[in-house]
Amino acid sequence: MAQSGAGKRIVLTGGSGKAGRHVVPHLLEKGYKILNLDLVDYPDPKAGVTTLKCDLSDSGQVFNALTSHYGFEGYDEGAPPSPPDAIFHMAAYARNLLVPDNETFRGNVLSTYNIIEAGSKLGVKKIITCSSETVYGVCFSEGDTDYHSFPLEEDYDVDPMDTYALSKICGERTARTFARRYKNDIYVLRVGNVVEPHEYERDFPKHVGQPMTRKRNAWSYIDARDLGQICDLAIQKDGLGFQIFNATNDTITTKETTKEFLAKNAPGTKITREMGEYEAPLSNRKIREVLGFKDVHDWRKYYKV
Ligand SMILES: NC(=O)c1ccc[n+]([C@@H]2O[C@H](COP(=O)([O-])OP(=O)(O)OC[C@H]3O[C@@H](n4cnc5c(N)ncnc54)[C@H](O)[C@@H]3O)[C@@H](O)[C@H]2O)c1
């Protein structure tokens, strides 16, 4: 069977980070040629990915990087490279409290603006960018606050009170603006809490045993490898213009069914539709139905309750 990424050149940003380390191998396996734009090298020098050191908050660097070779072999092709077939933008300050709030805002908003603007103006037809679960307003709220309703879906009236989530909402609006102007596909992924393979054994005893510690993540998560699958599916699916997709795995991170758990632990939050037996409250219904996502790494495979 032909690989989905065969013959496609993509630019990843932030590929050296937590999610990128698992997204990159998945995409290489699918046959994509990858150029990674990051401030630091990709951790595995043997992976076959060139990292171009590029500060995405500098527009000039971003425009340049998008017409760069993917490695020295590019010089044998006899012509300067054209822009990529697709961009997957992950680079960010991935939460609050890494740098002061104003720098989180500056870095994230400018980086997302620059990559979407440069990609659109250079004719890139598919741009996928990472937003966050935090836009649903509970993750970094001051004190114990409630979601408006469950399931959390893409048409929710997002209302965070923190700077990181605000920077992500600015990214979502930037995507919408450019998709309208350039008529390209710009898909926003509202990424859930990212889980790496080694974190199941380490973290899930607490996640499952003390479930209220996971309220801020809406008792949901995304396996970093499954995020790679979502990226591949989003590249394959053309013609949707501007879209927002929650990017989470299928199921709630509790022992109880979703209905039992929410009735007991979120009694004041209204339920707007019948939910699946173990459906994640940060629901991935749209990526399943529209992109054909199939959950491969359910947490129950790696941590037995
Ligand atoms: N980790 C999570 O649980 C989580 C949850 C929701 C959303 N997200 C989002 O998913 C994406 C990936 O998250 P992650 O956990 O892999 O983050 P990470 O911090 O592990 O990696 C981010 C990468 O971006 C790079 N970077 C930061 N600023 C840059 C800049 N100005 N120019 C170039 N590169 C820059 C960093 O060097 C790093 O390699 C981010 O957009 C993040 O906001 C993550």
From TrEMBL:
Domain NAD-dependent epimerase/dehydratase, chain residue ranges per copy: 10-233
InterPro entries referenced in this protein's UniProt entry, alphabetically: Epimerase_deHydtase, NAD(P)-bd_dom_sf
Protein name per Swiss-Prot or TrEMBL: NAD-dependent epimerase/dehydratase domain-containing protein
Gene3D superfamilies assigned: NAD(P)-binding Rossmann-like Domain
Transmembrane segments: none
